[in-house]
Give the backbone structure.
Amino acid sequence: MVRCLRLALLAALVSLTVPAAAGAAGWSAIPTPSRTGLSGVACPEPSWCMAVGGWQRRLTAATWNGRRWTPATAPVLPARPVGSALTAVACRSQRACVAVGDFATGQHQPYHPFIEAWNGRRWRIQAAPNAPPRAPYRATNSTLAAVACPGVRLCFAVGRAVAFGAGAAPGGPLIERWNGRRWSLGSPAGSGSPLTALSCTSVRACTAVGGFQHETGNPTANNQQVTYPSLVERWDGSTWRVGSLATPAGAEGAGLLGVSCTSRAICMGVGDQESSVAGILGADQAIGGVGDGTAFSASGLAYPAGVERGGTAPPQTVLTAVACTTSVQCAAVGRYEATNGALGPLVAIWNGTSWTQTVLRRGPVALTSIVCPALGWCMAVGDGIAERWIG
């Protein structure tokens, strides 16, 4: 009887939070405007979303009105850009969004953090300081990967800072803070890995996570080495403190690439682990884990149906973004590579007990961002595609 009442209550909540014309249950492809290259999405409500991205040296944006995606006023390009990108966006309302990414002003020039704000009519660039160089290097490559605004006068943007000229080195975390007037460099407590995702439940509770696979050597010469530094950082209202991720059993290394917190003490993290298959190091397997915002434990997720397609290569799966409406309902997105080399988007649903992963055959693309503003409703974008989930 109690279970029936709970199911009835859940059905009632879904009917209240999901628009009546939401569509069929499950994942469905949503057409996006051509040449938008959307990579980040934010939805204050199911009837309105803002997505940002880039396409061939221009920045793009699109809005969702509950029925379709349409082009929005394009973000402003920085002065004399050679390359620029917007990778993530956060919106408090239809008239208040912040998008982050990076730009460079020359082919052999370092990348700088890039931030724009939306006021409901147009975009405006906000100055973002670059991380200072470390000797003996003279410049820093800085990129921003995630943004969250837990208060009107408080936003954080996180990403990566690596010495310009250090090649594929992992680098370290980059944190920028908005105080209502300007952006300034934050003070990350950890090092050794960039930050790729950020979730805040209040101005006194934010969690940032990240990981970076760094491979050297050659597997055919038996000298391949793989390191996978990861990082968890927790904001308590005054300072950032280092957290932890317990490496899953049997993994050579692992990192959380996405995080979503539903309360101060309950967060879900997703990412991937590096394992050995048939004696060869280099098989990625998606992971999912629960934490209190500071300490996380995670485990590998079984490879989903659809990745075994002939061929001899091990399957590869990674989840790069997650969004939770409650502690028992989360959706995550990423990418997969099948055993025959076929690529495509990977999606997953958490029901409070386990993950169910699904391979989508949408072509050689990936999903990079997801948001779930209402119970049973999520929107994901990436590589010029969009997927909506109704549950």
Residues 158 and 175 are 5 Å apart (CA to CA). Residues 1-21 have pLDDT under 50 and may be disordered.
